[in-house]
Amino acid sequence: MSSSPSDRHEPFWSGIQHGIGPFPPDAHRSEVVRHSGGIRVVQSESMDVNGKTVVVTGAANGIGRALARRFHADGASVVIADRAETPLLELERELNTRRAGSAHAVLADISTELGNKTLIDSARQTFGRVHLFFANAGVAFGMDLEHSDESDWNASFDINIHAHRWAARHLIDDWVAHGDGYFCSTASAAGLLAQIGSAPYSVTKHAAVAFAEWLSITYGDRGLKVSCLCPQGVNTNMLNPPDTPRDNVKNIDVRGGDVVRAAGAVLEPEEVADVVAAAIRDERFLILPHPEVAMYEQNRTADREKWLAGMRKLQRRIFGAA
Ligand SMILES: NC(=O)c1ccc[n+]([C@@H]2O[C@H](COP(=O)([O-])OP(=O)(O)OC[C@H]3O[C@@H](n4cnc5c(N)ncnc54)[C@H](O)[C@@H]3O)[C@@H](O)[C@H]2O)c1
Fold first, then answer.
1. Pick the CATH number of 20-294 from 1.20.1270.10, 3.40.1190.20, 3.40.50.1820, 3.40.50.720
2. 269 C-alpha to center of ligand 1: Å?
3. CA nearest 182: which of 88, 95, 276?
4. Atom of ligand 1 nearest to the CA of 88
5. Residue 10: what pLDDT?
6. CA 121–ligand 1 middle distance (angstroms)
7. Out of 5-14, 47-56, 86-95, 310-319, which region has the weakest mean confidence (pLDDT)?
8. Nearest CA to 126 among 156, 96, 155, 106?
9. Model-level pTM?
């Protein structure tokens, strides 16, 4: 039996009118969108966090702490969330000393939907609307197939990707109703390329990039702004875990640091926060504090066989021959 084109079910995307891209090509702030009734130019205001409410997860340490300090310095009210209580409360005190009543700490475990909902409810009760949500908390668990157990995989999925989905789920109705909102996630260069040594990290960071892209495609015309932060090495506890013996090879926390350092420059969290602040002001989707990652990604898509061979070579250099 054969079927003519008209017999076939149309793919679900066939009815979607695609945006025809930035216009002019290097302008981030206007986009020509084609609809059934013609085209319309979507002009977006530049994002200014002054006077806005910004939520940052994983804010007790590292990149999240630097982001919270930076948004706060730029005039935002910040809701800082983490499961590490002592450094979280220290940061809350620090920020409220600078500007009374401008920071609210929420001790939260974002590895569950309830943890994300409770955080968002608490942010709204304290400051009203959430304007920008930064899904930044992440873990680097698991290594190869023999050294990643179910708990590594489950925690990686829950924290590195499901948390983004749960947060967006509880934010989106308000954002669509108001025609504005900003979701930013911290994925990783590993989400564009690969994390040598860790399957759970590679897979969940790729999923985080895919989810951020999907959000932008699906809700961008309804006012949602989305950015995705994809750094390479950053000088945080994730790269230099405190008090972890180097012969503990269970998690990439230990050897992962060697991998990331071998791949290139290691930035300070404050440098990353500066790049993020500029990108969010411009409402740019992809945030690459290490600009060379754009070239690595181009290499990957241009010639995947060559790129894979290069990654295997880098792996041999770090871990030795198999
Ligand atoms: N450091 C790097 O080289 C690097 C590179 C690329 C991407 N990243 C990503 O940057 C993000 C921040 O990492 P970092 O380098 O600042 O590491 P970090 O370990 O210093 O900070 C991560 C924070 O997330 C918190 N956290 C983890 N699980 C949580 C949970 N279930 N609930 C609440 N809080 C939780 C931790 O307590 C910690 O304070 C992560 O998503 C990480 O994957 C880091």
1. 3.40.50.720
2. 11
3. 276
4. 39
5. 41
6. 22
7. 5-14
8. 106
9. 0.86
